[in-house]
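Request:
Um, any thoughts?
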Amino acid sequence: MQVWCQRLSHFEVFPKNNKAGEDYNGGRDLDDFVAFINDKSGTSRDGKGKLTSKAGIVATLGDLVKEFVSAGDEEQKAVYSRLEEEVKKLKDSSARYGNIYLKFAKNCLEKGADYAKNEIHRLDRILEKSISPAKADEFTLKKNILSTFA
Protein backbone atom coordinates (compact mmCIF):
# COMPACT_ATOMS: atom_id res chain seq x y z
CA MET A 1 0.00 0.00 0.00
CA GLN A 2 1.20 3.49 -0.78
CA VAL A 3 0.17 6.65 1.02
CA TRP A 4 0.42 9.90 -0.85
CA CYS A 5 0.02 13.41 0.49
CA GLN A 6 -1.06 15.91 -2.18
CA ARG A 7 -1.51 18.79 0.25
CA LEU A 8 -0.82 18.82 3.95
CA SER A 9 -4.54 18.44 4.62
CA HIS A 10 -5.31 15.80 1.96
CA PHE A 11 -4.15 12.19 1.94
CA GLU A 12 -4.81 9.45 -0.56
CA VAL A 13 -4.20 5.77 0.00
CA PHE A 14 -3.45 3.40 -2.87
CA PRO A 15 -4.11 -0.22 -1.89
CA LYS A 16 -2.75 -2.84 -4.29
CA ASN A 17 -6.21 -3.58 -5.65
CA ASN A 18 -7.30 0.07 -6.09
CA LYS A 19 -5.20 2.11 -8.53
CA ALA A 20 -7.66 5.03 -8.40
CA GLY A 21 -6.86 5.55 -4.74
CA GLU A 22 -9.00 6.23 -1.73
CA ASP A 23 -9.28 9.51 0.12
CA TYR A 24 -8.44 9.56 3.80
CA ASN A 25 -10.92 11.73 5.65
CA GLY A 26 -10.23 10.60 9.20
CA GLY A 27 -8.70 12.41 12.13
CA ARG A 28 -5.39 14.19 11.79
CA ASP A 29 -3.58 12.91 14.84
CA LEU A 30 -1.09 10.05 14.78
CA ASP A 31 -3.38 7.50 16.44
CA ASP A 32 -6.16 8.07 13.89
CA PHE A 33 -3.79 7.81 10.97
CA VAL A 34 -2.07 4.68 12.32
CA ALA A 35 -5.44 3.02 12.99
CA PHE A 36 -6.48 3.75 9.39
CA ILE A 37 -3.24 2.34 7.95
CA ASN A 38 -3.52 -0.75 10.18
CA ASP A 39 -7.09 -1.30 9.03
CA LYS A 40 -6.27 -0.92 5.35
CA SER A 41 -3.07 -2.96 5.39
CA GLY A 42 -4.01 -5.66 7.90
CA THR A 43 -1.17 -4.76 10.24
CA SER A 44 -1.15 -4.13 13.96
CA ARG A 45 1.42 -1.44 14.74
CA ASP A 46 1.56 1.46 17.15
CA GLY A 47 2.55 5.07 16.43
CA LYS A 48 6.24 4.20 16.81
CA GLY A 49 6.03 1.40 14.26
CA LYS A 50 6.26 -1.43 16.79
CA LEU A 51 3.92 -4.39 16.77
CA THR A 52 1.04 -4.21 19.23
CA SER A 53 -0.12 -7.02 21.52
CA LYS A 54 -2.75 -7.91 18.88
CA ALA A 55 -0.19 -8.75 16.20
CA GLY A 56 -0.22 -12.44 15.28
CA ILE A 57 -3.39 -13.23 17.20
CA VAL A 58 -5.87 -15.34 15.20
CA ALA A 59 -9.28 -14.82 16.78
CA THR A 60 -10.75 -18.02 15.32
CA LEU A 61 -8.19 -20.09 17.24
CA GLY A 62 -8.81 -18.44 20.61
CA ASP A 63 -11.53 -20.76 21.90
CA LEU A 64 -9.61 -23.87 20.84
CA VAL A 65 -6.47 -22.65 22.61
CA LYS A 66 -8.49 -22.00 25.79
CA GLU A 67 -9.92 -25.50 25.54
CA PHE A 68 -6.44 -26.92 24.91
CA VAL A 69 -4.94 -25.17 27.93
CA SER A 70 -7.71 -26.28 30.31
CA ALA A 71 -7.84 -29.88 29.03
CA GLY A 72 -6.16 -32.88 30.62
CA ASP A 73 -3.28 -34.69 28.91
CA GLU A 74 -5.37 -37.05 26.78
CA GLU A 75 -7.95 -34.40 25.94
CA GLN A 76 -5.19 -32.04 24.81
CA LYS A 77 -4.23 -34.45 22.03
CA ALA A 78 -7.80 -34.41 20.69
CA VAL A 79 -7.98 -30.62 20.89
CA TYR A 80 -4.59 -30.41 19.16
CA SER A 81 -6.05 -32.40 16.24
CA ARG A 82 -8.96 -29.95 16.00
CA LEU A 83 -6.50 -27.07 16.13
CA GLU A 84 -4.62 -28.62 13.20
CA GLU A 85 -7.84 -28.79 11.19
CA GLU A 86 -8.65 -25.13 11.89
CA VAL A 87 -5.15 -24.02 10.92
CA LYS A 88 -5.51 -25.81 7.56
CA LYS A 89 -8.47 -23.49 6.80
CA LEU A 90 -6.46 -20.31 7.36
CA LYS A 91 -5.07 -18.16 4.54
CA ASP A 92 -2.23 -15.65 4.12
CA SER A 93 -0.61 -14.29 7.28
CA SER A 94 -3.22 -16.03 9.45
CA ALA A 95 -1.95 -19.36 8.10
CA ARG A 96 1.60 -18.42 9.07
CA TYR A 97 0.48 -17.43 12.56
CA GLY A 98 -1.65 -20.57 12.81
CA ASN A 99 1.45 -22.70 12.26
CA ILE A 100 3.11 -20.89 15.16
CA TYR A 101 0.08 -21.75 17.31
CA LEU A 102 0.52 -25.41 16.34
CA LYS A 103 4.22 -25.36 17.17
CA PHE A 104 3.52 -23.90 20.60
CA ALA A 105 0.68 -26.35 21.28
CA LYS A 106 3.01 -29.22 20.38
CA ASN A 107 5.69 -27.81 22.69
CA CYS A 108 3.12 -27.55 25.49
CA LEU A 109 2.27 -31.22 24.97
CA GLU A 110 5.93 -32.22 25.05
CA LYS A 111 7.31 -29.83 27.66
CA GLY A 112 4.39 -29.37 30.04
CA ALA A 113 2.05 -26.67 31.22
CA ASP A 114 4.80 -24.21 32.21
CA TYR A 115 6.27 -24.09 28.70
CA ALA A 116 4.35 -20.97 27.57
CA LYS A 117 5.06 -19.00 30.75
CA ASN A 118 8.77 -19.88 30.69
CA GLU A 119 9.10 -19.07 26.98
CA ILE A 120 7.37 -15.69 27.47
CA HIS A 121 9.90 -14.82 30.19
CA ARG A 122 12.76 -15.85 27.89
CA LEU A 123 11.41 -13.70 25.05
CA ASP A 124 10.91 -10.74 27.42
CA ARG A 125 14.61 -10.93 28.36
CA ILE A 126 15.61 -10.98 24.69
CA LEU A 127 13.29 -8.09 23.82
CA GLU A 128 14.86 -5.95 26.56
CA LYS A 129 18.20 -6.16 24.73
CA SER A 130 19.24 -4.24 21.66
CA ILE A 131 18.08 -6.38 18.74
CA SER A 132 17.18 -5.65 15.14
CA PRO A 133 13.64 -4.44 14.38
CA ALA A 134 12.99 -7.61 12.36
CA LYS A 135 13.97 -9.83 15.30
CA ALA A 136 11.90 -7.67 17.67
CA ASP A 137 8.89 -8.20 15.39
CA GLU A 138 9.48 -11.96 15.25
CA PHE A 139 9.82 -12.29 19.02
CA THR A 140 6.84 -10.00 19.68
CA LEU A 141 4.64 -12.14 17.40
CA LYS A 142 5.75 -15.27 19.22
CA LYS A 143 5.20 -13.67 22.63
CA ASN A 144 1.71 -12.52 21.65
CA ILE A 145 0.74 -16.00 20.47
CA LEU A 146 2.33 -17.64 23.52
CA SER A 147 0.26 -15.36 25.76
CA THR A 148 -2.87 -17.17 24.55
CA PHE A 149 -1.41 -20.38 26.03
CA ALA A 150 -0.34 -18.85 29.36
The longest strand covers residues 2-7. The longest helix spans residues 92-111. The chain has six helices and three strands. Confidence is low (pLDDT under 50) at residues 4-8.
